[in-house]
Amino acid sequence: MNRLSTRDLIPVCLLYSSSGPYAALGQEAIDGALAAIAEVNADAGFAFRLEPVIADPRGSAEQYAVLADAAIRNANCRHVIGTITSWSRKEVLPVVERHGALLWYAFPYEGYEASDQVIYLGACPNQHLLPLFEYAFPRFGGRPFVIGSNYIWGWEIGRIAREFTEAAGGEVLAERYVPLGSAEVEHLIAEIREKKPDFILSNLVGQSSNAFIKAYSALGRQDPEFSHEVRPVISCNLTESGLAGLGDAAAGHITTSTYFDGLDTPENRDFKARMAARNGARPTTSPYVSGYMAVSILAQTIADAATDDPRVIREMVTSRLYSTPLGPLKIDPKTHHAALRPLLGRSNGRCEFDILESAPEAVPADPYLVCADVHFPPLKIRDEASAGLSRPPLKVVK
Q1: Of 174, 186, 203, 384, which has the fewest Cβ atoms less than 10 A away?
Q2: In the chain, pLDDT over 70 holds for what percent of residues?
Q3: Rounded CA separation 33/27 (Å)
Q4: Which residues of 217-243 are buried (b: 16+ CB within 10 A; e: fewer)?
Q5: Which residue, 336, 293, 337, is CA-closest to 314?
Q6: Looking at residue 241, what is its pLDDT?
Q7: What is the mean pLDDT of residues 224-240?
Q8: 3-class secondary structure, 104
Q9: Residue 239 has pLDDT above 80, yes or no
Q10: Does residue 235 sit in helix, strand or coil?
Q11: How far apart are CA 289 and CA 274, in angstroms?
Q12: d(CA 369, CA 227)
């Protein structure tokens, strides 16, 4: 194990798509990561500097593995910060496992995974989908319409949502999927209008999400039965950057996250003040914070360990509490997942979310959903079609 000497240069791969179907998310994450790197490099208290090695897979899942391998082999990167979609993460997994590198993954995902070569800083289903449904069921009803991008995130969140719904006595009226990046959503709107679900769970990503939100908002303006007050769109992955460019379609959507710009905590106030000095009036989005947080935690751990050896970092990162914009953060030594505090927000039309609810404290990650029984609040009875819904305990999702 090589010990760091004064101001050693440590290359770090930033593996996000800044072009392609979900470029806005990737660029925000890169910007956040670069902000954290700038802070580290300007701080004489760190006995090293970080050198960003930026790789753009352009939204092509296969390119993630190619570029990760090149960064590790050719640029000597021992740490890869990045990937957004689960498809791309799973492409990179065998690469970091083969080389003994670490992947720092900071976006929400579907769970059912734990690797010794990944640090999971994003929420898993018990930290996003479960609190979202606990909020939605008693307010809107138990008959969701599920839509998603046609890859693992959409499939798995759809599956888990179906099992949650059925265990709570509800019924998923339909599950529909569109190709990643597709803007053809008219068939979804037509079926939703016909079936009149209680709410829509959207697991769409990037351009697909934008196209659907615009189309559904247009439907709501034509028919009040589909207004956001009556039949809202809810999601686990809609972010501030996803609202940009939506105009009057940006308001009224409910999402769960572990960070919103309006989070009123000492840690976030301090973070936003530093970012305002760097970026001006630019809002801080959850993808931005994800990239920033991954770099910040890595840098703090390297400083503690006096090495960037992934084996040492992997052990060290689970042994301390980190100060982050989300608040104090701890990573579980068994699963390498972060304990996170779920938040619920409603978009207000200004590319921001008003916080509706927040958990009182961080929730330990349960990536395989092996927790005890969960009880949803009573389901709202919208009409006769919902009248027979019962509410047994929600059993473990296997």
Answers
A1: 384
A2: 91
A3: 10
A4: bebbeeeeebebeebbbbbbbbbbbbb
A5: 336
A6: 85
A7: 95
A8: strand
A9: yes
A10: strand
A11: 13
A12: 33
DSSP state, residue 295? H
Residue 379 binned pLDDT confidence (cut-offs 50, 70, 90): low
* 120-138 per-residue burial string, b: 16 or more CB within 10 A, e: under 16: bbbbbbbbbbbbbbbbbbe
Residue 97 host element (H or E):
helix 86-99
The torsion of the CA quartet 308, 312, 316, 322, rounded to 10 degrees, works out to 20
Rounded distance, CA 164 to CA 134, Å? 10
Coil, strand or helix at 251: strand
Angle CA 70–74–78, to nearest 5: 80
Query: What are the contacts of 217-223 at 24+ separation with CB within 8 A?
Result: 217/246, 217/248, 217/249, 217/252, 218/249, 219/189, 219/192, 219/193, 223/193
**CA–CA distance, 90 with 121 (Å, rounded to integer):** 16
| Number of other residues whose CB lies within 10 A of the CB of residue 38 | 14
The model's pLDDT over 30-44, given as tens digits with 9 standing for 90+, comes to 999 999 999 999 999
DSSP for 115-176, written as a single string: -TTEEE-S--GGGTHHHHHHHHHHHH-S-EEEEEESSHHHHHHHHHHHHHHHHTT----EEE
Confidence label for 244 from pLDDT (cuts 50, 70 and 90)? confident
Distances, alpha carbon 340 to alpha carbons 32, 115, 198, 225, 373, in Å: 19, 19, 28, 35, 20
pLDDT digits (tens, 9 = 90+) for 296-355: 999 999 999 999 999 999 999 999 999 999 999 999 999 999 999 999 999 997 889 999
Q: Report residue 236 as tokens.
A: 């686990």
Question: 357: Cβ–Cβ under 8 A, 6 or more apart, which residues?
Answer: 131, 135, 343, 344
With cut-offs at 50, 70 and 90, classify the pLDDT of residue 282: confident
Are 344 and 359 in contact by the 8 Å Cβ rule? The answer is no
pLDDT of residue 374: 55
Q: Are 16 and 24 in contact (CB under 8 A)?
A: no
Q: Does the pLDDT at position 388 exceed 80?
A: no
Q: State the pLDDT confidence band at 371, using cuts at 50, 70 and 90.
A: confident
Helix (H) or strand (E) holding 363: none
pLDDT of residue 4: 61
- For residue 75, how far is the Cα from the chain centroid? 28
